[in-house]
Amino acid sequence: MKPIQYILPALLLFALISCSNDSSDSNSSYELRSEAPVATKQARRSAYLAYEHAITIGLPHDDLETGYGNIISFCNDDVANKCTILHSSLYTGDYSSAQIEIRVLPTGVDTLLELVSDQGDISNKSTDIDDLQDAIVNGKKRLEMLIQYRSRLSHLEGQRGNNIESLIKIAKELSQVQSDIEYSQGGNAALLQRTQMDIVQISLDTHAYTSFWAPISQSFGGFGETLSEQISEAITAIAFLLPWALMGMVLLLLVRFIWQKSRAQ
Length: 265
Prior knowledge:
This protein is an alpha+beta fold and 265 residues long. Among the domains are: 95 residues, no CATH class; 63 residues. It is built from seven helices and five strands; from the N terminus they run H-E-H-E-E-H-E-H-H-E-H-H. Strands 2-3-5-1-4 form a five-stranded mixed beta sheet. A hairpin with a 5-residue loop joins strand 2 and strand 3. The protein is flat.
């Protein structure tokens, strides 16, 4: 009997140790399972980020059109990164400048910014990030609800039989739902495109490279226009004040006449 008394506690202790190990293994596996959704969620959240880059370049006046053309040509040739020019404008004159807005895949942003930087001196560079997760997720949920509603309407349409009034109402509602679905699909596609492609805002500025004599020459160039404008304003002021001056003179003469007459009495 004594050996059995020693064996039973040993077996019980072994069972407790095994249970403890199983519990720790299950806890560690639970931690791994709980961390996995967090990593997945963060990966999904990062996929909902929209990037917009902005860069301002200062360059000499004579190099503006060349730099502008280099950027436009580079984007047109960058087919691999789907480079697309959304807006471009070139202003020539005393203070020349250019604006270019480009949409490109993230893999092509660094190369594009490097080319832009080579055109002159960087005066400003920034990156803005917009989180579109809520908008995209809500848009998908709304689209799913609309599709389900359309399916129910289609099923209901098949059960109406020859009830013309009900069929007309269902057809009208189906048309509206289909329009809402197409609008929602377009909005979701636009949001996804913003997350899949970056926007690059490029500004080319020549103000910093204005020569010493440029403001003086601009003043002489605008001398005649400024002089004519001031003469025009002076003539307008005279035309405005002349009637009041005449009325003041008449009133003054009348007061003087009354005063002289009162003194004579």
